[in-house]
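Notebook, p. 212. Picked up where the previous page left off. The plan for this session was modest: take the two constructs that came back from the sequencing core last week, fold each one, and keep the raw output in the notebook itself so nobody has to go hunting through shared drives later. Recording the first one now, exactly as returned: residue sequence, then the structure token string.
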Amino acid sequence: MPRVSVVVPVYNGAQFLEESLASIFAQTFTDYEIICVDDGSTDASWNLLEAYRGRLKLVRQSNRGQAASRNAGAMQAIGEFLAFLDQDDRWYPHKLARQVEALDADPDAVLAYSNSDRMDQEGCLTQIGATLIEWDSALASPLGSLISGGLVLPSSMLVRRDVFVRAGGFDANLRGYEDFDLSARLKQRGRFLFLEEPSLCYRQHAAGFSQAGGMEVIRSRERFLLRMQALYAGEVAKKQLIRVLLAECYSDRGRAELQAGNRRDSLAFLWRSIRHHPTKLRTYLRLLRALGPFV
């Protein structure tokens, strides 16, 4: 049985996929399996994956989103640990070796992750150690304060599979915020280990795995915050922070509904925002615009 199951979610990823797979094959740690989940690609991704048949487990499904693809891969996994690699990112050769070593040395830790570099669409390095550079600002941000940490990139993590399963995996109903959501739930189950040496290069480009629309992202933000409200029900400071974040979410939803021509829904969400946080001037200005000729 392999110690590590590597899950690669794929959606129209033919442009960068071979480079990502090559970075797995180049790992110094070799006790792994690779599970690629094609999420209804319409480009050459599936044909490319089939060329590797025998070296990969292949799963094909209708388009359900990146979180659902990661979960589908995790369901097929048999390794002790789960690692995730996005189709356009690139691991460094020591990635799995260093993280397996770290988790083996600390049985109480549930997840290891690392610093990361950034590259542009062409694969040229643009920033070294991006995670550490942004560390303080990430912790000080509202989301960082809420989950007591910055964003853990899925391509950076190695997590114990049994803990991932018990935590419920990624929330497949989220389009955005699923990474924060998983981190918050996993932190309830044990310690995270951070390795300062970068173990991957994260690609920044316009066309990511999926491009959820603005309204969909706002709905996901609300779902995420309501989940956090339940998770942190006993923590007064976090409950208050969530009320403020929900107010901002409902204010943005009110603006989006107005832009879509849904004035009645816009007013409902703006009033909901005011009930959560009654001193936000921007929401009142949006409310005046939504009232329009009625005032």
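Okay, moving on. Second construct, recorded in the same format:
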Amino acid sequence: MRGNIIEELYYGNIDPQDRGYRPKSPAKKASDSLNDLEEKLTEQLAGENKELFLRFCNAYAEFMGECELDTFITGFRLGARFMMDTFLSEGAPFESFLEG
């Protein structure tokens, strides 16, 4: 990165979704299991049932994408609130003996 995070975001050099699974991680194992199960079910289904299952998979993936977006936005806003509180708030339960 060149240093200016806003510029990096503008030029598309920052992509929070550009991530992969660590080998042997719980997420990798779960993802592999889901892929294997989907493949096995797809092979066993035919006709209308197969189409219905694939529509379900696509709808679920779309729903999960929306959930991830919401979680990202919520986390980003929470982080911004932490930063605002850190830099804009002087309040604390005790007084500081270091000041004045």
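Notes on construct two before I forget. Residues 47-88 form the longest helix (42 residues).
Flagging for discussion at group meeting.
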